[in-house]
Amino acid sequence: MAAGHAGGIAQYHLGCVRRARGGVWWRGGSVPVVTARARWGLVFGFGIGAGVAVQGRINGALGARLHDGIAAATISFGSGLLILVIAFALSARLRGGVVQVRRALAAGTLRPWHLLGGLCGAFFVACQGLTVAAIGVTAFTVAVVAGQLLSSLVVDRLGMAPNGRTPVTALRFGGAALGVVAVVLAGSGRSGAPTGALSVPDSLRGAPAALLIILPALAGIGLAWQQAVNGRVGQAGGPLPATLVNFCVGLIALVVLEAAVLIGSGLPAEFPTQPWLYLGGLIGIAFIALAALTVRWIGVLLLGLTSIAGQLLMSIALDLATPTSAGLSATAVVGSALTLVAVGIATRSQP
Q1: Domain residues for 226?
Q2: What is the DSSP letter of 206?
Q3: pTM for this prediction
Q4: Most exposed of 88, 107, 301, 344 (fewest Cβ within 10 Å)?
Q5: Is the separation of the CB atoms in 186 and 332 below 8 Å?
Q6: In which band, very low, low, confident or very high, does the pLDDT at 11 lie, cut at 50, 70 and 90?
Q7: Contact 71, 64 (CB under 8 A)
Q8: Does residue 195 register a pLDDT over 70?
Q9: How does DSSP classify residue 21?
């Protein structure tokens, strides 16, 4: 993607300047010169991760009250979609973005499968409910992150995101691997199932952990693909239209999943009345829209690494502000610091 097309404010220095994918420019083949948009993209990536952590704490608390994590996610998606529908009803500009998405579909620049990113979010929630009680939080998280970061390398290499193709280099692979190690360290002090998680279904009882761990790994692979296709939709119609599509598709999938759960367990006895428990959807709108924009500037791998770092750092802040039974461990701090190193390594990657 040429500098003029990207619209970034590149810092030009004496010597030969050429572009590396993901918003990083290189001078003389070795010195990284990061564009203004790429800098903002890194900042936004950390913010996205922080939002994910806050939403996770809110939805976890709601799931604990309802004794159903999928119900909490369904409510989160539903409330977010309601907010979006109201916003689109009031804004002709937002509705124009939807029209642009339809035109892109008709022209073939956007494929129908680009609209299915929300399915990956629903699959992630389902995998969490199905496997965490059996394999534990740490194994689940590590499997998701490993799948997400390794898949990000492939997604960037294939050019599925709107920022174009980015080759797999030793530094990019090293950054992804270090990110997985960081999450292993950060999660090593935690175990067990989170409150609000579903019990293991009878069909999965006794299944080997090595088999169950495939599900969260697949969920992580899906998250990388989701970021890429949401970015494509955002490129066609804007971040909020991409978010609307994501919420619509994700909610449909979650309603189907929750219907299957309710057949066996029935509706929750009561719904909590604290308003803050229903803010997950609003927070989700913010970070999904921001991700659809940011992935154009820094690519899927850097978006994944920065959001994981932001999530871990915000989790530490939340543990300090509102301690949980698991507490804050030294390994969590070390792991969070390592994610920052991983971001630095991946940012310096030379194609």
Answers
A1: 42-347
A2: T
A3: 0.84
A4: 107
A5: yes
A6: very low
A7: no
A8: no
A9: T
> Which residues make Cβ contacts (< 8 Å) with residue 82, sequence separation at least 6?
281
The residue type of 173 is F
Q: What is the mean pLDDT of the chain?
A: 84
Strand 24-27 relative to strand 17-20: parallel, antiparallel, unpaired?
A: antiparallel
Three-state DSSP state, 1: coil
17 lies in some domain: no
Q: Find where tokens 């997400």 sit.
A: 148
- What are the DSSP calls for 111-130, one per residue? -GGGGGHHHHHHHHHHHHHH
Residue 10 inside a domain? The answer is no
Q: Using CA atoms, how far apart are residues 351 and 32, in angstroms rounded to an integer?
A: 11
- Tracing tokens 């500098």 back to the chain, one arrives at 3
H/E segment holding residue 326: none
**Six-digit token pair at 175?**
């950054």
Say how many domains are in the chain: 1
Instruction: Please give the Cα distance from 98 to 85 (Å, whole number).
Output: 12
| pLDDT tens sequence across 248-295 | 999 999 999 899 888 877 788 889 999 999 999 999 999 999 999 999
For residue 94, tell me if it sits in a domain: yes
For residue 154, what are the CA distances in angstroms to 89, 160, 221, 225, 234? Answer: 38, 9, 10, 10, 21
Distance, in Å, from the CA atom of 248 to the CA atom of 246, rounded to the nearest integer, reads 6
Does an H or E element contain 13, and which? none
In sign, the C-alpha dihedral spanning 156, 158, 162, 163 is positive
**Torsional sign, CA 311, 316, 318, 322:** positive
In a domain, 5, yes or no: no
Reduced to 3 states, what is the DSSP secondary structure of residue 350? coil
Residue with tokens 């971040």: 239
Neighbouring residues of 103: CB distance < 8 A, sequence distance ≥ 6: none
